[in-house]
Every structure is written in C-alpha cells, then in structure tokens.
Write a structure and sequence with these properties.
The complex is a heterodimer.
Chain A (H helix, E strand, L loop, with lengths): L8 H18 L6 H8 L14 H18 L3 E8 L2 E8 L1 H4 L8 H13 E3 L4 H8 L12 E3 L3 H11 L4 E5 L2 E13 L2 E8 L4 E6 L3 E7 L28 E7 L4 H8 L5 E2 L5 E7 L2 H9 L5 E5 L1 H15 L1
Helix pairs in contact in A: 5-6
Chain B lengths: L12 H18 L2 E2 H7 L4 H10 L16 E4 L10 E2 L2 H7 L5 E5 L12 H14 L8 H12 L8 E4 L5 H13 L1 E9 L4 E15 L2 E8 L4 E6 L3 E10 L20 E6 L6 H4 L4 E4 L5 E6 L3 H11 L3 E5 L8 H10 L4
Antiparallel strand pairs in B: 1-4, 2-3, 2-4, 6-7, 6-10, 7-8, 8-9, 11-13, 11-14, 12-13
Classes of the chains: A alpha+beta, B alpha+beta.
Chain lengths: 321, 343
C-alpha cells in the first residue's frame, strides 16, 4: 500500500509559483490579481497550492510570490488591466524578456565555464545558478579559488548599459556625470568604467567604487560606440593626471628589467650590454611616477628630463635631512 | 524512521523554483534525461527531485487544469524494449518495481527556455572566463564557450569587459594551478624583494590567488623550510617537476601579507592624505587623532617594502618607533642609497 504524505509547505509554494509563472507567460494581456486567482487556482484547503479566495489575502500572497520571482530575476511587468469594468493593475511576463537566447553551449564548453566560475568568484553571485541556465554544472569545478572579485550593486547596471548601449548617469566626486559606457574593467584590484563623458566632452575613466548613489540608465541603443574607441590599457597611475605630458627616460638594473616591463606596460627602448635597460615613459602625473620609480629603490634612475630628476632628488633630500 | 525535520539541508521554495525553471527546459531539449544526471547538473538532491517532479511539477499547468492542460512527466521505461510511456507517479513506481531512473517532460512549451541570465550573472560568467584567458582568439572550450555567451548576449566586442587579476605570464599561472591541483613540486628562480637578491628554490605550491591586482602563489618553500607567499610577477624562471608532495591538511584563506609573530613592528604617524596606506598594508592597529593624523602599527616582513613605502610617503610619514633589527634612521639610509645614484 502506498501512503502519500502531505506535501511539504515549500512544495506547495513551489507548485503555486510554477503555476503563477505559467499563467503569466501565457497571459495574452495584463492579468489582475482577481484573474490570477482563477488562472493559478484557489487553495481550498491546507496543503493545496493556489491563492486564497479572499481577495485581500490573495493580494498579500501574490506580492509575497512576486518577491520570490524578483529575487530570481523573473521579469514580470505591470500594466493596466480591466476587470468587470474596473480599471486595476495587472501583470504578465513577455516570453522574449523571460527566455535565454539560444546559445547552444557544448558539454566541454560548459565544463570549462564551470571550472572558470569556481576559480574566479564574483562576490554575492552564485556561479552555479548562472550555469543551470546554460544546461547545468558539468564536470568538476576547481577546488582552488584563484580570485574573489568584489562586486558593487551598480556593476550589473553598468554592464547592462554597455551591452544595451544605454547612457549612464551617476554622481562622481560631487558632480553629476553623463557617460556613454564603453568598457568595464577590473584591474589592479579595482573596477573601472571607461567611456565618453558628455560633461567633459572627452574620454574618461572612473573608479566604480567612487560612484555615489544610484546609476541611472538611459534608453537602449542610446549611443553608438565609435569604431576607433580606445582599447583598455592597464591602469597606469602616472598617466592619470591633467599635467602636460612629459617624456621621461628611466634606467633599470638588469635584475629588474622584466618586472619593470610588466609594471610599465612596455618593453625597454634600449638594452645595455650588462642587461640593464632604459625605458621611455609618458608621464602625466609626476607624483605617481615618482612612486613607481621608488618601487625599484637604487635599482632605477631617472635619466631625463633634468627637471624630473632634480625634483626626485629634492624629494629624497627632504627625507635625508 | 527518519522524520522530515531531520532531513539535511532542505531546499526552500525559492531554491526549488530556481532549479526547476532551468532543469525543465534542459530535460525537454534533451528529449529526456536520467534522474541522477539531472540531480548532479542542477544540484538537486535526487530524492527531493523525484518527489518534486512526480508530485509538484506533475500538478502544474494552465487553467482549467484538465489533464490536457497539465505538464506531463513521463517515465521512460528503459528496462522494457517497448515504447510504453505513461504518466506515472515516480514515487509510487519506486515501491512497485525498479526505480524510475529516466524521465521526459512534455506539454510545457512555456517552460521550454531557461530564464535569461541576470546582468550580474552574465558579468560573472564572462568575467570569470576572461580572467583566465589572455588570448581570447585561441581555440579552447573556454574560448568557444565565451564566444557563444558573448554573441548570445549581443556584446559588441572583446572590449566590453576586461578582467585582469594581475601581471604575470599566463602560462606560469596555468602551470602553477596545475601544480597545485596535482601536488607537484615546482622549481623557481625568484627575486626576493626583501633581500634584494635572486634565489633558486623548490616550492610545494598550495594555492594560487589574486589580491589587490597581484597574483601570488602560497607555498611551502623547501629552501626556507616554511610557508612563503611569492609574487608570481617576481618569478624569473619556473619549471614544474614530476615530484609529488603531500598536500597540506588545510589551507587557510590566503593573504599576500602573512605577518609572523617574530616580525618586528613599526609605529608610523601619517598625514591625512596618506590614509590609503590603511587599505594597502597589513595594519594591525590604528587611531586617528583630532588633527586628522593617523597613528598605526604594522608588522614588517620585508624591510625593503617598508623602505619603499617610507620613501614614497616622504614627509607624509614619520617613523615613531621600531623593533628588533630595524633602526630609526631606516628611511634616511634608504634615501641615501638611492641618492648615491644621482651624484
């Protein structure tokens, strides 16, 4: 004999939520909560899925359900619905908003993505949930995490703005900015947004963690990224400044040449017989450049220009006093 | 008998819904699937999955909920060679005969596509893939997966999103990750910043990690006979060996700065504009005075690192006290060494 135990409360809830989504996707127009009572069904007794027959209670239950759907990213839209000549709010899901586009990701590709999401985690985002949408978790993840990347609430909005070509507005250093976003970059431990700043009428780079308050998104396809938009280059503090550009020559000891190449993001211009090398560096921020040079202590020397050299010496002499 | 309450890690309604909305389209696209396979892919304990398929999904459908409007959960009978497919209660089938291990789902066209990725999920998937790929044009499963994702999401190009975890040769990272996974010793030539010298070492890498824009490997160093953290960027040569090592029982959450008890401490007073030091250095204790100046205590594991910091800060920092072998004239001496180049 088979004895059916009652459904668990979370199963009853699951059934109602699934029915609700089914009804909303199939809705030809906005459905009011009253109509949803019918379309989802009424719960006549305990342990039965559906909405209460009392409209106020049903409304409460519906809004609780909506919280769950929102948390999962189910795109429910709201509009006017007409019920027995009364104008009221109604709800529906448009299939095109709901559905993942066809991607046809193969099994080995899914396994590679699985390894990637376990090696590089983004704070507060479940890589597993994202993978379910692509066909589930395949293969083994790595058991060693390479990096945990910080996330800020506005990052998802900024990323969406880039993919949908929407202008973004935000407050930065106490000023409102309106920007056509081109690139979002995680570099040297920080998130940056690069794009065209309407206020300054020029290309600008912003630290995402310094954006204040909400990021407002403009309409989709609100701008077109120029074909010759600059590519992202790794953040170089000595380039971030409004000072007139100086061309500096920096000598670096042989031991430090490969490290300096990566640090400066360029190859040396001259390599000497003893393996030491000279780099030519464009500088827009003298203080930042001094800090980089000091990382190499006595294994580096500013050769040119003279002014930069004497300022550097003066800085050190103050310490030596 | 095990009561309901004793079941481990019961899934909430949202947990179940999140999985169900994605597994139904997958099973439909496959024309049926093994229960165990679904459970694995969607992290759904298989007993719960069986029950939710047979008793919950089976009851989902459209108004007026007549049988033709309900979702079909079909047992695919793999033991018989006929195509006798029928709606079954998987739970009761459980008791009657061999366990149902393969199912198909139909009459659920509205659930035939997975839910779109949220922008945060898309960012994390593409970001994770990009972080591991420096050459996005090479052909690998990861590159192909990334391409399909990017075109599905209508991303305009490679420049939309960049994730740079640190400057280091890509193949070294891959090699070190392989060494960590397979417990293989690695031979490195390393420039020690603290000593200002190059050494050849055998290391047992425990973990590769990125922190504040640098990539590190944490390892047992046989040369130093202790746990050390190496900046991958300062490795001059690297060679993976075939010699295995015993992995550590447990690796602590990694951190680039691993102050040891025996590290000497220094006390610094910083001007307000040097407050960034608090973020970037392993400060153990600090307080801000009413004039805005900050007094902090930090361990020094590499003297050279402290020298660099003090020269960078210049007059924005004053050394207030030192311990151990450190001297109060440390910044002066360092400045003199650098100045000698400029004579």
């Amino acid at each position: 004999m088979i004895i059916h135990s009652k459904l668990k409360p979370e199963q009853v809830r699951l059934e109602r939520l699934l029915r609700l989504i089914a009804a909303l996707i199939n809705a030809p127009r906005f459905l009011s909560i009253e109509e949803l009572q019918t379309k989802v069904g009424l719960a006549k007794g305990q342990g039965e899925a559906g909405y209460p027959s009392d409209l106020t209670a049903a409304r409460r239950a519906f809004h609780r359900d909506m919280n769950e759907l929102t948390a999962l990213g189910v795109p429910v839209i709201r509009g006017r619905a007409k019920v027995s000549e009364k104008d009221t709010w109604g709800y529906r899901i448009r299939k095109q908003d709901y559905s993942l586009p066809e991607m046809d990701i193969a099994s080995d590709e899914l396994a590679a993505l699985h390894r990637a999401t376990t090696a590089v985690r983004f704070h507060g985002i479940s890589g597993a949930e994202a993978l379910w949408k692509l066909g589930g978790q395949v293969g083994e993840g790595t058991d060693t995490e390479l990096a945990a990347v910080p996330m800020y609430p506005c990052l998802a909005d900024l990323f969406r703005a880039i993919t949908e070509q929407r202008t973004v507005s935000f407050d930065y250093s106490g000023q409102p900015r309106s920007v056509e976003p081109w690139t979002l970059a995680f570099d040297q431990g920080h998130w940056y947004l690069m794009g065209f700043d309407h206020t300054r009428q020029d290309k600008r780079t912003f630290r995402v963690d310094r954006m204040v308050g909400q990021v407002e998104l403009g309409r989709p396809n609100g701008f077109k990224q120029p074909a010759d938009a600059p590519r992202w280059v790794s953040i170089q503090p000595w380039r971030l400044g409004n000072q007139p550009e100086i061309t500096a020559q920096l000598w670096v000891d042989a031991e430090q040449v490969s490290l300096a190449s990566r640090r400066l993001g360029q190859e040396p211009e001259i390599i000497k017989d003893d393996g030491s090398a000279v780099f030519t560096v464009q500088v827009n921020n003298v203080n930042a450049f001094r800090s980089v040079v000091l990382e190499f202590l006595e294994q580096a020397e500013i050769l040119k220009p003279l002014k930069l050299r004497t300022d550097f010496v003066r800085w050190l002499e103050k310490i030596n006093k | 008998m095990v009561g309901e309450d004793q079941q481990m890690s019961r899934l909430s309604a949202r947990d179940r819904l999140g999985r169900m909305l994605e597994l139904v389209p997958w099973v439909m696209s496959q024309g049926g699937a093994e229960i165990d396979e679904i459970a694995r892919r969607f992290d759904y304990p298989s007993d719960e999955l069986r029950e939710d398929l047979s008793r919950v999904l089976f009851m989902v459908g459209l108004y007026p909920f007549t049988p033709d409007q309900l979702i079909n959960v079909i047992e695919l009978d793999t033991s018989d060679d006929n195509d006798k497919t029928q709606n079954v209660d998987i739970q009761s089938a459980n008791h009657q005969k061999a366990k149902v291990d393969r199912i198909a789902i139909s009459n659920a066209e509205y659930f035939s596509r997975p839910l779109r990725l949220t922008p945060a999920q898309a960012l994390s998937l593409i970001g994770a893939a990009k972080a591991l790929l420096t050459d996005t044009h090479s052909d690998s499963p990861l590159t192909r997966g990334l391409d399909k994702l990017a075109s599905g999401l209508k991303m305009s190009g490679d420049e939309d999103l960049k994730v740079n975890l640190g400057d280091a040769p890509q193949e070294w990272i891959q090699t070190l990750l392989r060494a960590v996974q397979n417990h293989l010793k690695v031979q490195i030539r390393y420039f020690s910043y603290g000593r200002g010298q190059i050494t050849d070492r055998i290391i047992q890498p425990h973990r590769v990690f990125s922190e504040t824009g640098n990539l590190y490997v944490r390892a047992h160093c046989e040369w130093a006979d202790g746990i050390r953290v190496f900046l991958i960027d300062r490795i001059k040569k690297l060679h993976i060996t075939t010699e295995r090592f015993d992995p550590p029982d447990q690796t602590n959450p990694p951190s680039a700065f691993q102050p040891r008890d025996e590290d000497p401490r220094v006390v610094l007073e910083l001007a307000p504009e040097a407050a960034w030091v608090l973020e970037k250095y392993p400060v153990e204790h600090y307080e801000q005075h009413s004039d805005g100046n900050i007094q902090l205590t930090m361990p020094v594991s590499e003297v050279r690192r402290l020298e660099v910091l003090l020269l960078q800060l210049g007059t924005h920092a004053v050394l207030q006290s030192v311990e151990g072998a450190l001297r109060m004239d440390l910044p002066k001496k360092a400045a003199q060494r650098v100045l000698r180049k400029y004579l």
